[in-house]
């Protein structure tokens, strides 16, 4: 995706930027009239008329009839986003699954797939093959519907640099300095589609911000609840990345000196205390297997932990109380640092919420400096295991809205 120029721009750049400005306004206010778009964007009516006509020709905006509002003169024709032609695809690879979410230009769901896979066993190259196959199947489905995929964003639980398309480190997958975007493009064998890569927690936060139960909360923190524990942080409506793109690695905050070994090689990390691997090891050690081997069948094992807790097994319930207390301690650090309006817990935290959330809330309250959690609402994700993939699809739409990815033109490949 091309960055927006920070220097002088030519006429085409101005035109594309204005198109994006108008599109962004229509997304936010639809259905709306041309006059409302002009008033809301500050562009003159002639410019708006030309831009809207172009957006309609490109299949991005559609007229939806006259306004029902009583007014003098001819009723205004209302505009909204046209979701019939173009889509965006988000993919996620995690320790035990692949996910795909396709949305249209209005971010309405078009396709949602979730497939169990043992990613660590497949290795990086094997995962790319499976991921590219998933993408081709999704794009094939779009082609059958006469739709075009404008871009793909891939979510990975690991350290992702800002622009090189490389996974610097993904300890729970066993990946190191892996050029994922290059390998994926080779497997996909399609040079036309825009590709990008980001951390799963970052994209999970984007998914929550754009489409979650607390959507459009301007300041929120999203915590993944996987083998790895990552944090995505939204500040004033924008994702916090850090200077090199490595921000949000909250799972590797040290909470216990000489504590349990973490996948990163250090001890006592937040992730090592509350990640799903640690939960299974503490609550149901008979399900954990050898510590030298990656955990498999996580969903089934977490379901069994929940079953034992529901049955009142003392070892299981005591372990989940301890996990909840560490979850509260680690989360309090985030509330003290960022003072978010919302803390959203995802992944397997949702499944185990009846047992981990009461101690987590108590400990969180005890360790947060601000009264009443600083006004923070603690909530469980409603997006399930699609949050990161959904955020990936939304990031493509956001790139179009902000002119970092060019708007599709009329006569696109999907309609030739």
TrEMBL record:
<comment type="similarity">
    <text>Belongs to the ROK (NagC/XylR) family.</text>
</comment>
<protein>
    <submittedName>
        <fullName>ROK family protein</fullName>
    </submittedName>
</protein>
<dbReference type="InterPro" id="IPR036390">
    <property type="entry name" value="WH_DNA-bd_sf"/>
</dbReference>
<dbReference type="Pfam" id="PF12802">
    <property type="entry name" value="MarR_2"/>
</dbReference>
<dbReference type="InterPro" id="IPR036388">
    <property type="entry name" value="WH-like_DNA-bd_sf"/>
</dbReference>
<dbReference type="InterPro" id="IPR000600">
    <property type="entry name" value="ROK"/>
</dbReference>
<dbReference type="InterPro" id="IPR000835">
    <property type="entry name" value="HTH_MarR-typ"/>
</dbReference>
<dbReference type="Pfam" id="PF00480">
    <property type="entry name" value="ROK"/>
</dbReference>
<dbReference type="InterPro" id="IPR043129">
    <property type="entry name" value="ATPase_NBD"/>
</dbReference>
<feature type="domain" description="HTH marR-type">
    <location>
        <begin position="22"/>
        <end position="71"/>
    </location>
</feature>
């Amino acid at each position: 995706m091309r960055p927006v120029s920070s220097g002088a721009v030519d006429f085409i750049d101005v035109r594309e930027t204005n198109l994006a400005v108008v599109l962004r306004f229509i997304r936010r206010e639809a259905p709306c009239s041309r006059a409302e778009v002009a008033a809301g964007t500050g562009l003159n009516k002639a410019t708006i008329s030309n831009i809207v006509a172009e957006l309609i020709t490109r299949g991005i905006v559609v007229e939806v009839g006259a306004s029902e509002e009583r007014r003098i003169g001819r009723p205004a024709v209302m505009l909204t986003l046209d979701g019939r032609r173009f889509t965006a695809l988000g993919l996620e690879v995690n320790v035990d699954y692949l996910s795909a979410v396709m949305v249209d230009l209005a971010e309405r769901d078009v396709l949602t797939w979730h497939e169990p896979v043992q990613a660590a066993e497949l290795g990086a190259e094997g995962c790319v093959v499976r991921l590219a196959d998933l993408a081709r199947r999704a794009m094939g489905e779009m082609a059958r519907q006469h739709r075009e995929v404008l871009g793909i964003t891939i979510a990975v639980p690991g350290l992702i640099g800002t622009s090189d398309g490389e996974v610097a480190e993904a300890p729970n997958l066993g990946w190191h300095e892996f050029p994922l975007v290059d390998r994926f493009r080779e497997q996909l064998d399609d040079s036309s589609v825009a590709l990008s890569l980001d951390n799963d927690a970052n994209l999970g936060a984007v998914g929550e911000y754009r489409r979650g139960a607390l959507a459009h909360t301007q300041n929120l923190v999203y915590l993944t609840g996987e083998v790895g524990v990552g944090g995505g942080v939204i500040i004033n409506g924008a994702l916090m990345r850090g200077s090199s793109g490595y921000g949000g690695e909250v799972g590797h905050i040290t909470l216990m000196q000489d504590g349990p070994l973490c996948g990163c090689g250090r001890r006592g990390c937040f992730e090592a205390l509350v990640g799903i691997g640690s939960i299974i090891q503490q609550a149901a050690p008979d399900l954990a297997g050898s510590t030298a081997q990656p955990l498999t069948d996580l969903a089934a094992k977490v379901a069994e932990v929940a079953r034992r807790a529901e049955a009142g097994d003392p070892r299981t319930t005591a372990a989940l109380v301890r996990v909840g207390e560490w979850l509260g301690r680690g989360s309090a650090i985030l509330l003290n640092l960022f003072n978010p309006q919302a803390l959203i817990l995802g992944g397997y935290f949702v499944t185990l919420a009846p047992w981990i959330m009461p101690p987590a809330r108590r400990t969180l309250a005890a360790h947060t400096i601000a009264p009443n959690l600083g006004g923070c609402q603690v909530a469980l994700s409603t997006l399930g295991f699609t949050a990161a993939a959904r955020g990936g699809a939304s990031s493509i739409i956001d790139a179009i809205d902000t002119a970092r990815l060019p708007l599709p033109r009329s006569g696109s490949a999907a309609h030739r």
